[in-house]
Amino acid sequence: MGETEEKEVKKNHGDKEEEHNKAEKADKKEKKKDKDKKDKNEEDKNGGGEEGEDQEKKSKKKDKKTKKEKNPEDKKDPEKLKMKLQKIEEKIQAMVLKKDEIVKLIHDAEQAKGSAVAAADAPPPTN
């Protein structure tokens, strides 16, 4: 019976060490977070430089990700519908221009490849 009591005492001691280690890790994480916050606040006060700009971009992306609540009256307002249609048409025109540029690049690349193959197939000139 003495063995089981010793095992339980060792197990309990191990559990206490584990809890202590977990507490230390949590304290370290909190200290690191506090330091990061402090550093961030100092950067904000100092202008932040490029990192400040990155923060602005991140916040703008977050704003874009959060969807606006749609107003059901917008679907009934002809002015707003016309504005939406105009925006879509502008986007389509921009996409068509990009498509045309890519098609032209493909065409040019195929011609260049074709002329390179033709030059390689031609026999060398004799003098």
UniProtKB/TrEMBL annotation:
Region (Disordered) location: 1-82
Compositional bias of kind Basic residues: 58-68
Record field: compositional bias (Basic and acidic residues): 7-29, 36-48, 69-82
Protein name stated in the entry: Protein PXR1
Top-level lineage group: Eukaryota
